[in-house]
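Input set for joint prediction.
Command: fold jointly, output tokens.
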Amino acid sequence: MTPGQRRFALTTHLTISLGWIGAVVAYLALGVSAVTSEDVQTVRAAWRAMELTGWFAIVPMALASLLTGLVMALGTPWGLFRHYWVLFSFVLTIVANVVLLLHMPDVSVLADVAQEAEGASLAGLGGDLLHPGLGLVVLLVITVLNVYKPRGLTPYGWRKQEEERRAS
Amino acid sequence: MTHAAEGPGRGSPPGTPRWVKVFGIIVLVAVLLLVGLLLFGGGAHGPQRHSFSPATPAAALRTS
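tokens >
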């Protein structure tokens, strides 16, 4: 990539990834509302909003973050498997995407249940705080790795570096 | 992004950094904990099992 393309790709990746974090925070706020509110309509609305936020904000940004991260890794000298911090970020992003995609159908089911449930049934739905809470921790870890870029070449990265050194 | 050369570069690959080992142990423990919870935590899995807060008492819910 040219420097201009790289900067554009980095801006896109950062914007989407931080947007993913923001959307998860919004989802958590709705989940807390679903748990703490004493108003049935508020709880039902919170669940519907969680479903919509999940499918139309979190999922698209999670997939786009994975895609733009791949573009950044493969389109720059960092590579995907050369540095431990890139490798860990990639694996954690894949895990977060898989858990998210497996979890969202449950959220849709519960959002539907919430529209009909009353009293103890509705209160028993809780607020789905664990998944987004752990997800937020994972996303913050990835952010720290991407900002600090701790040193450490993988054996593959070291071999590629040696090959390039010999070739130059 | 800059790409500084790393490692000894004298025929032998660099050792695994300490932060990678610590990070790997933390991830391994977290994964084992989650797998243990899934296997021995009652079987059923879904968002309603994971609420941190106690459920709001049914009597406290009101329809506006």
